[in-house]
Specification:
This protein is mostly helical. The protein contains six helices and no strands. Helix 1 (12-30) packs across helix 2 (37-44).
Length: 125
């Protein structure tokens, strides 16, 4: 039996999140075509089989990365508590936050990546 200090294995959700983070860096750094499932799996510290058990193809991984990025960026924007103040002020605060979000380096990089790959992935373009 293992002791109380035994290291717990990461949950499936934690493992998936780690895969998405590493794939995100690979796609942003190298682009879709140059990013390799083998390199992503190696950086994760697992096998390609493990990566493919979560994402059946590189396309599925790419789409998951884009969806995760959209969720990560936009969910907080719509969770703002903007029930106080005049409508114009609320709208201005929302617009400022939205522009701040769109003008981050990550947002611009993802925009460029999606545009570059939109012919290959019209569903995300």
């Amino acid at each position: 039996m293992r002791g109380a200090q035994a290291t717990a294995r990461p949950s499936s959700d934690d493992r998936r999140a780690a895969m998405l983070a590493i794939a995100r860096a690979a796609f942003l750094g190298e682009g879709y075509a140059a990013a390799s499932m083998a390199e992503i799996a190696a950086k994760i510290g697992g096998s390609k089989a493990t990566l493919y058990s979560y994402f059946p193809s590189k396309k599925d991984l790419f789409v998951a990365v884009i969806k995760d990025e959209v969720r990560r960026m936009f969910v907080p924007l719509f969770e703002m508590d903007e029930t106080q103040g005049a409508f114009r002020m609320v709208l201005e605060r929302f617009a400022r936050r939205f522009l701040d979000l769109l003008l981050t380096e990550d947002s611009i990089s993802f925009y460029r990546l999606v545009v570059a790959e939109s012919a290959r992935f019209p569903e995300i373009g």
